[in-house]
Amino acid sequence: MKIIMLGAPGAGKGTQAKQIADKYRIPHISTGDIFRANIKNGTELGKKAKQYMDQGLLVPDELTCDLVMDRIGQDDCENGFILDGFPRTIPQAEALTAALEKINEKMDYAIDVDVPDENIVNRMSGRRACLNCGATYHIVSIPTKVEGICDRCGQPVVLRDDDKPETVQKRLTVYHEQTQPLIDYYKKQPPRAGAVFCPEKREKAVSTGFKNFSKTVKNPFTHKRARCGILIMSKGSNPLLPDGS
Ligand code: AMP
Question: Model confidence over 88-119: pLDDT tens digits?
């Protein structure tokens, strides 16, 4: 099963992706995590990526695409993978489609986690991350047991530079300009299983809907409309309309 998570930064796609990856025993591949690991390890790639990330900009496609193509070619991706934060531009999506076509493969699902911008700004300003082990928290909804200290590894948790409000605004602008067009791109892809969209605007509905995701994806075409507001797109349907027609 090959899945792409779409959605604005901070929409919660990472959290959903981890759950889906666990459920289906497929690797969770987050380009943001890969870049952050490179920054932490002081690699050349990390140094280059940081300049863009700190400004809320996308890392250029030429630094990103090869990295992902290389990763999905590894043995643990044989039965599928879930991409979180890639593709983020049309050229990235085209590179992925082309790489998979070469081996006669296609993505199975694209999932859009749809959360309004204002909720994202609020959510990200409360987010805290451990730069040591990558765990993320929220000061209200997922607090650390000891204030400011990572539950997992005991290191301090911080507001990431790219989660600061001014950077978040920039990231949202970049998302709307460069990443949101991917929703149309994946709607037009010939279905090998179509795409799943969450049309609900309320955050609660997003998380409720995903509880049933695992039931839903097993047989996407027998569920025109899944429970809890998740909509399944089949060939010719409009996933953004409630009746899926
Ligand atoms: P994330 O953790 O997915 O929100 O990513 C953090 C930052 O890493 C983004 O704001 C970008 O600067 C960079 N990044 C992650 N994935 C990509 C990608 N596919 N293309 C370009 N830049 C990316």
Answer: 999 999 999 999 989 888 887 777 777 778 87
State the Cα–Cα distance between residues 26 and 21, nearest whole angstrom. Answer: 5
The model carries a pTM of 0.77
Q: What is the 3-state secondary structure (H, E, C) of 180-194?
A: CHHHHHHHHCCCCCC
Query: Which residues, other chains included, contact 111 with Cβ-Cβ below 8 Å and sequence gap of 6+?
Result: 3, 4, 5, 6, 7, 13, 16, 195, 196, 197, 198, 213
Q: Which residues of 196-206 are buried (b: 16+ CB within 10 A; e: fewer)?
A: bbbbbeebebb
d(CA 27, CA 114): 23
Atom of ligand 1 nearest to the CA of 30: 3
Question: Which residue among the candidates 2, 88, 128, 187 is catalytic per the annotation?
Answer: 88
118/227 Cα distance (integer angstroms): 26
| 137: its two tokens | 């928290």
Residues within 6 Å of ligand 1 by CB: 9, 31-32, 35, 52-53, 57-59, 64, 85-86, 88, 92, 162, 171
Preceding peptide of 87 cis, ω within 30°: yes
Largest Cα–Cα separation, the chain = 51
pLDDT tens digits, one per residue of 1-41? 788 888 888 877 787 788 778 877 899 999 999 999 999 89
Is 171 catalytic? The answer is yes
Q: Which of 2, 123, 128, 160 is catalytic?
A: 160
Of the residues 2, 128, 171, 187, which is catalytic? 171
